[in-house]
Amino acid sequence: MLNLNKTIIVKNKKNSKIKLKEPILLVGLPGLGNVGTIVADLLIHQFKAKPLAKLYSNHFPHQVLMLKNGGLRLLNNRFYLIDNFNKKDNLIILTGDTQAITPEGQFDVNLEILNYFKNKLKGKFIFTIGGYTTMQEDLKNPKVFGNVTNTKIIDKFKKYDIVFKESRGAILGSLGLLLVFAKMQKLEGLCLMGETKYPELDPMAVKAIVSVLNKIFNITIDTKDVDKLIKSIDNSNNNIANNISIPPPFLDNKENSQPSYIR
Amino acid sequence: MLNLNKTIIVKNKKNSKIKLKEPILLVGLPGLGNVGTIVADLLIHQFKAKPLAKLYSNHFPHQVLMLKNGGLRLLNNRFYLIDNFNKKDNLIILTGDTQAITPEGQFDVNLEILNYFKNKLKGKFIFTIGGYTTMQEDLKNPKVFGNVTNTKIIDKFKKYDIVFKESRGAILGSLGLLLVFAKMQKLEGLCLMGETKYPELDPMAVKAIVSVLNKIFNITIDTKDVDKLIKSIDNSNNNIANNISIPPPFLDNKENSQPSYIR
Amino acid sequence: MLNLNKTIIVKNKKNSKIKLKEPILLVGLPGLGNVGTIVADLLIHQFKAKPLAKLYSNHFPHQVLMLKNGGLRLLNNRFYLIDNFNKKDNLIILTGDTQAITPEGQFDVNLEILNYFKNKLKGKFIFTIGGYTTMQEDLKNPKVFGNVTNTKIIDKFKKYDIVFKESRGAILGSLGLLLVFAKMQKLEGLCLMGETKYPELDPMAVKAIVSVLNKIFNITIDTKDVDKLIKSIDNSNNNIANNISIPPPFLDNKENSQPSYIR
Amino acid sequence: MLNLNKTIIVKNKKNSKIKLKEPILLVGLPGLGNVGTIVADLLIHQFKAKPLAKLYSNHFPHQVLMLKNGGLRLLNNRFYLIDNFNKKDNLIILTGDTQAITPEGQFDVNLEILNYFKNKLKGKFIFTIGGYTTMQEDLKNPKVFGNVTNTKIIDKFKKYDIVFKESRGAILGSLGLLLVFAKMQKLEGLCLMGETKYPELDPMAVKAIVSVLNKIFNITIDTKDVDKLIKSIDNSNNNIANNISIPPPFLDNKENSQPSYIR
What we know:
Four copies of one chain form a homotetramer.
Chain A: E1 7-11, E2 24-28, H1 35-46, E3 50-57, E4 63-66, E5 72-74, E6 77-82, E7 91-96, H2 103-120, E8 125-132, E9 144-148, H3 154-158, E10 163-164, E11 169-172, H4 174-184, E12 188-195, H5 203-217, H6 224-235, H7 240-244
Parallel strand pairs in A: 2-7, 2-8, 8-12, 9-10
Antiparallel strand pairs in A: 1-3, 3-6, 4-5, 6-7, 9-12
Helix pairs in contact in A: 1-5, 2-4, 5-6
């Protein structure tokens, strides 16, 4: 019987048997502008990612989601596998509905994630995706800011239009914690933050991140649906909240019947 | 000596010896519109339910209730048994004064409830009762929304005027957690939510739920007192809070001297 | 070495050796109107109570008090012994600076208190003292409301001008928790609540309680200083807060250099 | 592998081997006016303190700092060693980005600090540095208030322009907890609090503390940069927050790339 009085990872029986070769982890969890979750959703859909494992925690809010098919499910974080990502890499995606609320919960959940990625999946490198606000009113070409576990790897990533050494202040939750925990265990990683105007949902920041990921991995992520969302925000005289209530088609994950935006 | 530094269930010596045959659990705990607690109270009184066990938890608010008889009692959750419910089923009712406050507390308490129901009482099916707001101003015929642990059982319940697949968003507390935990342990269950206008006390939503329960179990739950409450709300020019201060007679549980509405 | 990562009771070496005969516990901890702490202070001073033990807890606020003598001390709860209380009884007083903040902390601290009183001091009966507001604007003769662990003992106390069966709602913290925990372990107790107008400091409620205690124990508690405080509040055109900043002389515990009112 | 699901101290391999002779601990952690952290920074820079150990805790906020060099680091507390402090003493400085949030976290972290200082470093005396507000509008010559673990040591420190026995009320966090825990383990200590006008950043209070430390240790701490900060605040027509965004040069710790003011 599952002991849910702690943080646990439940593996997908079939897919967790697939052999991986030093996979890369890309983390897109709820946060500023929901940049991370949308980027994760885009990748999961376009590359037909396979479910790998689910993470449950008694540190997540005590909420249950009502699904479109009439079912119910516990808030969770989900690992997916893209084994055909590019010619070189196995990519693991981590996305989810929520993050832990307390410091103790955040430490526990992120240490479990890292333990699973490092010790079970034998991974070495982590990308975390999020938003970063520069408080600019008239933001037309959002930048992508980067921070690293090890300053030696900045040179490797500078060519991909990532702005290093200009971001300041503190990062909350998995976006930062996973990387400092990784560093303490000799893994490396990069935090990519799209410059964010709308705290609720920022498709412009998503496009900026996608453009950087395309260069890093030499792929082409389809952003048609993100473009539609940007247009709908531009045309809207109402506030952004109105647009969020109509999620774009690609965010409507029928297979899992899971809502894409939990706040 | 009782260790109250955790969640514990204290059985009623006499009644916990009664033999049960795959009992059904119906859960009505405090929540939106207090729909669950009122439905539970109605059943407990009409069917002269027998006290089965009490659940105490150090995750419940640190409050003690002053009773009408001059006594005191700790906030708790209470299991009752209706062994003469209908011709077929043994019904267990779970009701109470409060729910745990933190995620960690909610996980702990609901796992204890499920463990007791599954492993001690050998139960298989759980109904949870609550409220659901559709934000409709002019709500005349409140619907009953349903969500299930397993979409295969929707067909079985559709005929009872339950609206499936239309409820959206997140459910808080036992109303949802108990069912997802049940599902993870191969039990099944149904969440019934009366469409709620008044967040404090909504007798119309209660009647809607009662009507569905009557059909499911082929019984007739007496709602005279609920009707009186509806009339008093209709006649009132004051806000709903005034009415709550005068609980209807059936809610005045003399035997236990326990107040029915704790906020 | 003291392990302060939990709730601990540190005994006074000398006084904890005094033989006690089924002592009575009287609890006056911070709460509504600070009725409990003032009553405890009055008794401690008038009867020259001996320090018996200190309770520390990592569930108390992380604060340290600056003392008049230039020292510092941790927030705590304090047990005192009055061995010459009346001809019959050994009285233990429990007072202190604070109560635990979370439900988990309150359960832990109150269970430790009860364990100490029951198992180490071999006590049988607990009085808890607090305030109770009836929301009356023009309160001239505050009543004393009572609630008991066991309704059989109401008759024994009714003659002392205690109002039973009229108090309603929930009691927070030790005032109630200690008594329900006592009841679960076959101890008995009485909660005495002075009708309170001023939530910060209510000397009228204190006098009402003192009058009841005088009758119960057949003693005469000196209330000169409480009378002065009442007069100063009556004469004041400012709000009650001004008066609190000038504690009456008897509250100025030089021996311990501890401030009497911590909020 | 580091277990970060608790409070841990990670020693600097090289410097933690340096032999110490009953070192003194000076603690400057975030708090009122940031007096403690600035004083600690001044000493660390002027005396070229050597890093000794870092303290991490799952009770600290779940935040990660973005560094000027493009790196990232976990919020922490840091021990430094000044072995050439004055002719007599080895000085340990404890400073950091944050303090624990909950009572349970504060007890845990401060007990770890004390355990490390007492049992590993064999220290005997602790100075804690902070701010104290007297609510004076026109504060020209801020005083330094003192509180001690043991009133016998007041005489020893009175000559250094420290005001004893006038500070009242409660101290939050390490500033007080470390000293009461020290006292319980037979260590001694002194809390020095600069009279504070600006809760965010108060360089005047810093200068007052520096002046006292100069006398106690017979040293001369350079305060040029603090003087500049005072002038910039005097000239400013804007509020203090504007000044904080431009930290003075000495606070720009290039070596560690750590921001000095985390709120």
